[in-house]
């Protein structure tokens, strides 16, 4: 399968839910037992935890933050017709000064695409590397 539009639409829905500050809509884009690894290495395990964690973020430190869509090239690779790995990236919400690489796994069940995993990794120089 080479058509990426359902997965692109899922990624766009993620941005839309974030920008609306809608934790329930954001979490609904994940399977029930998803693993969501934050920029700080915390695992928000499961849709309920993803929703609660993002509700606290959207009502607190990330209130009003915005994600951009399409600014970073998306690489989507289908492992099977119903499983895709996505590598994308972006800036930290709000300030745009910290870049990260985001890896997601999307799965299709009963005709609907959802994320099964999310990993957010900051882009940094390895220790001892010259800038």
Produce the secondary structure layout.
Elements: H1 5-20, H2 23-27, E1 30-37, E2 43-45, H3 47-59, E3 75-80, E4 83-91, E5 99-109, E6 112-122
Parallel strand pairs: 1-6
Antiparallel strand pairs: 1-2, 3-4, 4-5, 5-6
Task: Tell me briefly what this model is.
This protein is of the alpha+beta class. It has helices at 5-20, 23-27, 47-59, and strands at 30-37, 43-45, 75-80, 83-91, 99-109, 112-122. The protein contains three helices and six strands; from the N terminus they run H-H-E-E-H-E-E-E-E.
Descriptive overview:
The protein has helices at 5-20, 23-27, 47-59; strands at 30-37, 43-45, 75-80, 83-91, 99-109, 112-122. β3 and β4 (83-91) form a beta hairpin. A six-stranded mixed beta sheet has the order 2-1-6-5-4-3. The model has no long low-confidence stretch (mean pLDDT 87). The chain is α+β, with helices and mostly antiparallel strands. The termini are far apart.
How are the strands ordered across the major sheet?
2-1-6-5-4-3
Find the count of extended strands (DSSP E, 2+ residues).
6
Task: Let me know the average pLDDT.
Answer: 87
Distance between the termini: 40 Å
Q: What is the H/E string?
A: HHEEHEEEE
Helix content: 25-40%
Helix/sheet category: alpha+beta
Instruction: Report the uncertain regions.
Output: none
The quaternary state of the protein chains shown equals single chain
Strand count, sense and barrel status of the largest sheet are: 6 strands, mixed
Shape assignment = globular
Radius of gyration: 15 Å
């Amino acid at each position: 399968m080479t058509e990426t539009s359902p997965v692109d639409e899922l990624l766009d829905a993620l941005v839309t839910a974030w920008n609306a500050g809608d934790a329930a809509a954001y979490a609904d884009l994940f399977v029930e037992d998803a693993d969501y690894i934050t920029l700080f290495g915390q695992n928000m395990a499961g849709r309920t935890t993803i929703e609660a964690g993002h509700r606290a973020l959207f009502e607190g430190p990330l209130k009003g933050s915005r994600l951009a869509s399409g600014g970073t090239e998306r690489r989507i690779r289908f492992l099977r017709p119903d499983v895709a790995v996505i590598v994308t990236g972006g800036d930290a919400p709000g300030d745009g000064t910290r870049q990260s690489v985001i890896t997601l796994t999307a799965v299709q069940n009963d005709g609907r695409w959802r994320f099964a995993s999310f990993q957010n990794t900051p882009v940094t120089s390895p220790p001892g590397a010259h800038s």
